[in-house]
Write a structure and sequence with these properties.
Length: 254
C-alpha cells in the first residue's frame, strides 16, 4: 500500500473542543499536534501534575534518575492538559484504556471517532490528536549513535538498503521517527520490527511509505515530518479512507 505525503502543514493556535468537533468540515481531517519544550514549560506543566492518576504516578516512580522521573511527569501533564482542551473536560476526568496490543486510548462516550498519539524524547514531548481511527506520532532528539551500521541493519528494510537513503546517525534517527509513528498508528508500536516498513523517500524530504509488510487495512497513509526545533525530529502518520488530511503543528514554549 502506497502513501501520499502530507497535504498541508501549518502553525495553529491553542486547540479547543470546538475546533476538534469542526475539524472534518469540508471533508478534510485535521490532525492537531502540539510540541512541548518541557524545560521551558516546567513551571506551568508542574501544576498539571496534580491531574495525574495513581497509575501515572506509580510508573514515574519506577525511574531511577530524578530527571527522567520529572520529565515523565511533565510530559504526562502536557498530555492531559492538551486532550482536556480537545474534548472539553477537566484534565483529571480523562480516563484511558489500552488496546490488546497496548496502544492507549481515551475513553469517550460521545461516539465520535477520536484518536491520539503521544511521545517524548529528551526535553520534548508531542501530543497529536484528531477525529480519525489510526494516528501515530513520534519525536526524537538528535544524539550520537555509537553503532550507526547496527542501527541501520535493525531498522532498514532490504529494499531500503538498495535505495539511496542516507545512513548517517541523524538520518537514521529521522527515519526511526517516521517508522515509529507509522507503527504507533497501527497500534503495534515497537513490538513489530521496523524492517517491515519501507520508505521510498525519507527526511529531510517528505516521507513516502512504499510498503508496510502484510498491511491489509483499509484506506491510505498520510505522513508528515518536520524539524520544528534544531535537532528535533517530529513525525506524524495517519491512515484514512482517502480523505484529505491537514497537519497543524503548534510549538508550545510558554
Amino acid at each position: 500500500m502506497r502513501a501520499r505525503p502530507a497535504m498541508a502543514s501549518a502553525l495553529m493556535g491553542a486547540a479547543s473542543g470546538d475546533s476538534c468537533r469542526r475539524q472534518q468540515a469540508g471533508g478534510a481531517i485535521v490532525i492537531h499536534a502540539r510540541l512541548f519544550d518541557l524545560e521551558c514549560l516546567a513551571g506551568s506543566l508542574a501544576r498539571g501534575e496534580a491531574f495525574l492518576d495513581r497509575g501515572e504516578r506509580d510508573r514515574a516512580a519506577r525511574f531511577c534518575k530524578a530527571d527522567l522521573r520529572r520529565r515523565y511527569l511533565l510530559a504526562h501533564a502536557a498530555l492531559r492538559m492538551t486532550l482536556s482542551e480537545a474534548v472539553g473536560c477537566h484534565p483529571a476526568e480523562l480516563s484511558f484504556e489500552r488496546s490488546a496490543l497496548g496502544k492507549p486510548r481515551l475513553v469517550l462516550n460521545s461516539g465520535v471517532p477520536f484518536s491520539f498519539s503521544f511521545s517524548h524524547s529528551g526535553a520534548y514531548a508531542v501530543v497529536a490528536y484528531g477525529e480519525c481511527r489510526d494516528i501515530g506520532a513520534d519525536v526524537e532528539v538528535r544524539r550520537k549513535i555509537d553503532r550507526p551500521r547496527a542501527l541501520s541493519e535493525a531498522i532498514m528494510s532490504p529494499r531500503e538498503h538498495s535505495c539511496p537513503l542516507q545512513h548517517d546517525s541523524w538520518s537514521l534517527i529521522r527515519i526511526w521517527a517516521v517508522k515509529e509513528a507509522i507503527l504507533k498508528a497501527t497500534g503495534e508500536g515497537l513490538s513489530r520490527s521496523m524492517t517491515d516498513v519501507s520508505l521510498s523517500a525519507a527526511p529531510p524530504n517528505a516521507p513516502i511509505l512504499d510498503q508496510l509488510e502484510g498491511d491489509d487495512g483499509p484506506g491510505s497513509w498520510r505522513l508528515a515530518f518536520e524539524e520544528p526545533e534544531p535537532g528535533v525530529a517530529l513525525a506524524l502518520a495517519v491512515r484514512t479512507e482517502d480523505a484529505p488530511v491537514e497537519f497543524h503543528l503548534e510549538v508550545a514554549r510558554s
